[in-house]
Design goal:
This protein is an all-alpha fold and 453 residues long. Helices cover 63% and strands 3% of the residues. The two termini are 36 Å apart. InterPro entries: Azg-like (IPR045018), NCS2 (IPR006043).
Length: 453
């Protein structure tokens, strides 16, 4: 953090123990702000406990067991990130890797559920090994600034796409022409999304504390009153940790080491390395949690937290884990320390017992917050150095193709290709170092080999 940021920070002092543990006042925050940020992030990503079990359930997983696993992974990963790395980033089962596990591994290749979980476990082990040996940090170090900022821009656009699609604001075009179109402007979800975004813009301009959270809660209440799909199912429900349907400890590691399965494990690892690493870098930049050299504060711990979470996920019966893009909703709400992530982790533990509450927050209630965050992340375009046009435009290539392909790794790969080839054609090959060339070749080989997810 810069000195200016600290000087202009809120002056409210946190209690001694929390302040010392999370350096709250040092980063210019206070307990109330961190609690609100944590609740905002939780509400923005709580949809995962519905989406992940549904996707894996389609592949034959017991949905109740996956629900428990999803909560446990989010709780473990977020608590580890909060207490150890002291960063406001929440971890959960990655939606893209969940889809790969369900539809490619189990349904596509006919792999049994225990073997698929074994693949997730092995992916987590390999992912952690890559992290602790410093390879992920090496990747971050050799990530050109244009592509680093371009990843942030692309993730912002990606958030906009995810949020608007979940709320029905942007939908798939069933006819000829472009693949997407504007949704039903008169529908409740679209109206609430637009009004909610406008409300957040206004409340944040006026610096209303907890404005984003206030909008989410208000729209959820409106949905409960007027939307028949939003129903009250009670408050409490006891989780079933054990039993015949439990997935805890059922992974088949030896089965996953079959030469036929290993390429899929490699695909999971490669995707996680570039996807999750790019996401963490973008979130840290958006939250102004970079040091003077542009490195992530406690970056090594942050990278290890999400990789270890995938190991845990394979054990408890979930999908590969990663830092959630939706964490940006919490940082936009003022989260600056690990207390934000700890709040998320505690709430996911509580959700094991109050799971019916998750059905009271419709997608169009959290969509405005995600759209707002996406718009904020587009400000990364001002950080591009257009005096070095190849670096800047390669970053924009990365950004644009992240959203056009709905894949962060694809955007990064194309950005690297344009950067390296652009340098060569411009006669600027001296600006290309070994690290950039190695990363480019690895990404191109990954796609050329057909391993990309």
């Amino acid at each position: 953090m810069s000195d200016n940021t600290i000087k202009t920070a809120p002056q409210t002092q946190a209690p001694g123990l929390l302040d010392k543990l999370f350096a709250i006042s040092e980063r210019g925050s206070n307990v109330r702000q961190e609690l609100l940020a944590g609740l905002t992030t939780f509400l923005a990503m709580v949809y995962s406990v519905i989406v992940v079990p549904s996707m894996l359930g389609a592949a034959g997983f017991d949905q109740g067991s996956v629900f428990i696993a999803t909560c446990l992974v989010a709780a473990f990963g977020s608590l580890l990130m909060g207490f150890w790395a002291n960063l406001p980033m929440a971890i959960g089962c990655a939606i893209s890797l969940t889809a790969f596990t369900a539809f490619s591994l189990v349904l596509g290749q006919g792999i049994s559920i225990p073997v698929a979980l074994g693949a997730v476990f092995l992916m987590g082990v390999a992912f952690t090994a890559i992290t602790v040996t410093g390879l992920r940090q090496w990747i971050l170090t050799h990530l050109p600034m244009g592509i680093a900022h371009g990843t942030g821009i692309g993730i912002g656009l990606f958030l906009l796409l995810i949020a608007t699609n979940s709320a029905g604001l942007i939908i798939k075009n069933p006819g000829n022409g472009l693949p997407i179109e504007f949704g039903d402007f008169t529908s409740l979800s679209v109206i609430m999304s637009i009004i909610g975004l406008a409300a957040i813009l206004g409340l944040e301009k006026r610096r209303v504390p907890g404005g984003i959270l206030l909008v989410i809660i208000t729209i959820s209440l409106i949905g409960l009153i007027f939307d028949p799909n939003v129903k009250f199912h009670g408050f409490f429900a006891m989780p079933e940790i054990s039993g015949d349907t439990s997935l805890v400890g059922t992974m088949d590691i030896m089965g996953a080491m079959n030469p036929i399965i290993l390429p899929s494990v490699l695909a999971l690892v490669m995707t996680a390395v570039f996807d999750a690493t790019g996401t963490i870098r973008a979130l840290a930049g958006q939250a102004n949690l970079l040091d003077k050299e542009g490195n992530i504060i406690n970056g090594g711990k942050a990278l290890t937290s999400d990789s270890v979470s995938s190991v845990v996920s394979g054990f408890v019966g979930g999908a590969p884990a990663a830092v959630y893009i939706e964490s940006a909703a919490g940082t936009a709400a003022g989260g600056k320390t690990g207390l934000t992530a700890v709040v998320v982790g505690v709430l996911f533990l509580l959700l094991l017992f109050i799971s019916p509450i998750s059905y009271l927050v419709p997608a169009y209630a959290t969509a405005p917050a995600l759209m707002y965050v996406g718009l904020l992340m587009l400000s990364n375009v001002t950080k591009l150095d257009f005096d070095d046009s190849i670096d800047a435009l390669s970053g924009l290539v990365c950004a644009v193709f992240i959203v056009l392909t709905a894949n962060i790794v694809t955007g990064i790969m194309l950005g690297f290709v344009c950067l390296v080839c652009g340098r060569v054609f411009a006669g600027e090959w001296r600006k290309i170092n070994f690290g950039i060339v190695a990363l480019t070749l690895a990404l191109v080989a990954f796609y050329a080999g057909g391993w990309a997810i």
